[in-house]
From TrEMBL, chains A, B:
Keywords: DNA-binding, Transcription, Transcription regulation. The keyword Transcription applies. SUPFAM superfamilies: C-terminal effector domain of the bipartite response regulators, Pheromone-binding domain of LuxR-like quorum-sensing transcription factors. One of its GO terms (biological process) is regulation of DNA-templated transcription. Residues 170-235 form the HTH luxR-type domain. The keyword DNA-binding applies. This is LuxR family transcriptional regulator. GO terms for molecular function: DNA binding.
Amino acid sequence: MVNTVNLNQILEDLDATSALEELQGITEALRDAFSVDHIVYHWVDSAGDQYGCGTYSDEWRDRYLELNYHRIDPVIAGCFQRFHPVDWKRLDWSSKASRHFFGEALKYGVGNQGFSIPIRGPNGQFALFTVSHNCDDATWEAFTEEHSRDLILIAHYFNRKALEFEPNRQPEQSRALSPREVDAMTLLAMGYSRAQVAETLSISEHTLRVYIESARFKLGALNTTHAVARAMSRGLIVV
Amino acid sequence: MVNTVNLNQILEDLDATSALEELQGITEALRDAFSVDHIVYHWVDSAGDQYGCGTYSDEWRDRYLELNYHRIDPVIAGCFQRFHPVDWKRLDWSSKASRHFFGEALKYGVGNQGFSIPIRGPNGQFALFTVSHNCDDATWEAFTEEHSRDLILIAHYFNRKALEFEPNRQPEQSRALSPREVDAMTLLAMGYSRAQVAETLSISEHTLRVYIESARFKLGALNTTHAVARAMSRGLIVV
DNA sequence: TTTCAACTCCCCAGAAACAGCGAGGGCGGA
DNA sequence: TCCGCCCTCGCTGTTTCTGGGGAGTTGAAA
């Protein structure tokens, strides 16, 4: 793998991008620049609705989406719990589903090595930036070691553009919760019953209910559990 | 402001840091390297519990914490909604509380210029990395323009260390959920009622209940909402 | 000044969730 | 082979949550 990558040029190209299709082209240019098999940016969205760009084959991408592989993909699960970029080797491949998934991926041309960077944006947005290649462990470690910083920056810029191009996903910008509503949601997420929450906050249970309903309304949630889930995924509460 | 900053050296120093106190020292070194007034890393916990390190005066930090300024600080509010690093000038200072807050900050030696980078980690973790200085707009723009990429990387490395030093905030490991349990938790988090979930999964509501109870047990949760919250914060389900 | 959002309190009835009991078939690892 | 986990289904009763009303205060923004 050649290491004559001009980081500044890449980032400027990314900055200048004005359309979604161009991002696709940049993944290809990056793949060639880094001399790796694949570069993928993958926005992981709520209901399994997904979006991204990259150099994986169409067959693999379609299969991934169709079979809802994001649910068993250890890369997603692992990155979701981490802040660090992560080498695929360090993930948990112990379950049968994981190994089967990996086998499938190999068949469809994904490299045996991978390096994925989790990226998080406002409102619980979550995405991955992945580099994948076919080589031995030592080569791969040298590569990731050398380029991890550049890749973090590139991932960051990719996500900027993705957020820019997908304003539709932003209107989820629900109105912020009031302090009391945050309190209520937080305590509910901690497992308190309504009675306990009311007591903890020193208010009547009915008042509490008003907060919950208000929060539910602001979050567009169907019930309390949904409201708590949304509040969490949008980073409005931390448990 | 001098621009002889050795980014690699900084990042290596950060990587080698093994204790919280050293991070404080690094903010001071960075301040000198960049020749700015202040460098601050600020972990914002929505519960109001906060933590960070930086070169602000002790008086200002104490005042900030004591008066719960994080609730009215436009830097926090603004960064929380953005992915991009942001110049303080571009934030919303229209409210009375904001302007009062800014006046206070100036009195306590915070610069009139600022540049803050939002950083997000697992479980809704949120932090800011801020550079602040006293100068005119043009000078500041030139500075941020030149260093924004470096600052993004530095911010990233700071957050790595912060997460590393706060293991109690890391998700605890719990037994993995079975596929059916994941399905159940996911659909519940999407706002479905038990009846709807059962129908969606094509199982009886009683069976569904067994999954929910099982998941609740595995997660050590007190009720369904709690179980969903824990499953989400541990990255077992993605909603 | 007026308006608006936030915070507080109250009643009631129906829907939903919880808790505890039990049972049987299948599949994979020790 | 046996043990344990996963998946599936059933019953009964209690507790909790939800949704529909209405009403008063405060404080900050327009």
